[in-house]
Amino acid sequence: MIDTLNDLKQLVVKAAAEKKAFDILVLDLRERSDLTDFFVICSANSRMQVQAITDSILDQVYESSYKLFSTEGYNSGNWVVLDLFDVVVHVFHKDVRSQYDLERLWGDVPLVEVPHQ
User: How much is the mean pLDDT over the chain?
Assistant: First the structure.
């Protein structure tokens, strides 16, 4: 069971890392957005890996009894967005991530250190 928002961030990062996601970042949006507290952004080398990372995160979320509010982009495998309310996860194909460059768009928000295992 997830006890805190910090646990949710760690759960997402760990699940992504287990499927070899790379360039994992956590952005703290609490001072900039009323829609969510954190973005977790990560990359994959292929569409299949994007889906595997997403599946890993969803499996962990369902096992924790945390709520998934919506999923977008799973079938295309280019950019999947998982809305976990307090945390929004962006799983990008590496080429698509560079096109949208969310890190630059949200460049003035703090990065959060979340250890991967």
Answer: 89
Distance CA 40, CA 94 (A): 15
Decide: helix, strand or coil at residue 97. helix
> Is residue 115 a part of any domain in this protein?
no
- Residue 94 belongs to a domain: yes
Question: Within a 10 A sphere around the Cβ of 86, how many other Cβ atoms?
Answer: 15
Q: What is the pLDDT of residue 89?
A: 98
Q: Kindly report the pTM of this predicted structure.
A: 0.90
CATH number, domain at 80? 3.30.460.10
Report CA Rg, the chain.
13
The residue with tokens 């997830």 is: 2
- Our CA angle for 41, 96, 32, nearest 5°, is 40
